[in-house]
Amino acid sequence: MSSRLEAEHLYKVFGRRQNEAVERLRQGADREELRADGTTAAVIDASFTVEPGQIFVVMGLSGSGKSTLLRMLNGLLEPTAGHVRFDGQDLTELGAADLRAVRSRKISMVFQHFALFPHRSVRENAAYGLEVQGVPRAEREKRADEALALCGLAGWEKSWPDELSGGMQQRVGLARALATDADLLLMDESFSALDPLIRRDMQDQLLELQKTLKKTIVFITHDLNEAMRLGDSIAVMRDGRIVQIGSAEDILMRPADDYVASFTQDVDRSRVLTAGAVMDTAVRGDEADCGCETATPGTPFVELCALSARLTHPVAVLDEQRELVGVVPRQRVLDFLADGASDAVPCDAPRDGQVIAHA
Ligand SMILES: Nc1ncnc2c1ncn2[C@@H]1O[C@H](COP(=O)(O)OP(=O)(O)OP(=O)(O)O)[C@@H](O)[C@H]1O
Ligand SMILES: [Mg+2]
What we know:
Blueprint (H helix, E strand, L loop, with lengths): L4 E11 L2 H9 L4 H5 L3 E12 L4 E6 L5 H8 L7 E6 L2 E2 L5 H10 L1 E4 L11 H5 L1 H6 L3 H14 L15 H14 L4 E5 L7 H18 L2 E6 L2 H7 L2 E6 L2 E6 L1 H6 L4 H7 L4 H4 L2 H4 L15 E2 L5 H6 L8 E4 L5 E5 L1 H12 L18
Parallel strand pairs: 3-8, 3-9, 6-7, 7-8, 11-12
Antiparallel strand pairs: 1-2, 1-4, 4-5, 9-10, 12-13
Helix pairs in contact: 7-8
Magnesium ion (MG) binds next to helix 3.
């Protein structure tokens, strides 16, 4: 199966002599050198692929080029060089009308401050994308109501936006994007304006929705904890360039450079790591029958730590077919607890008979 979305050597330069700037960047010039000439290299040589159903997170500091990259993915900005392919179709080669059609039917954007129309009901707001597509009223209201229900807003269809809290308004934005049936959701700091508890709630809701909807999502954030919770794959941007692409574990355990590592200092490792990321894979098959505790590769490492008080054997990690795929040695759990993360880890002795849950 081909990738759903593909960015190939994308560049976006603002200001003077853009093509010349791209040439200089290709030869290794950086942002600072170009800035002296009044040219901004917003995105430099960005390449990645996003598979169907994946959440691809782009993170980086303010000004690193995230929003510019996102706007090239739906054709709102034309790349100075490079290509964007969506389902194999090169967006950079489409005419304006075709591009508009792709953008309104297949791609939806959710922004940080979602502007709802104050004099339209919640339902009409959620149906807006469908209205733009020319979908008849009865059908668009039905689909809007379904999307609102998915986002936990059933019963609010006839309310006005100002009757909703900030978090609920943001959900209307999400519902608007979902109602259009777009396969590709582009989310630019969509949850950043929400307070922390509601933000976490929205993250959970998105992950829950994603289990059934299986959209392809590009999610921008400057928050690494959010990136790690949501991202199947995470790209870290610095000064216009993608400096690392990897899983949460890759970023956390194998940061490409000091810049990436500096992001990871504040991350609550216990919530990100899984048994699969820390297990030893060179194991003998018969250890599965040792009567020890078992986990799946997706079991949060924090759950292993909860058992640490009475662990005597390694934890066996079993896949869906209950084949042994690795073990987590007891010492690794203890080392981890000693490594400063213990505050976040509940390490009381577990209740009798507790066995690590299978996913
Ligand atoms: N239309 C524009 N014209 C000129 N420069 C621009 C334009 N849009 C963005 N830039 C510049 O490109 C760089 C990247 O901006 P961008 O908005 O993509 O960053 P970002 O990572 O989304 O930042 P933030 O986290 O603050 O949203 C910045 O230096 C910005 O000033
Ligand atoms: Mg931005």
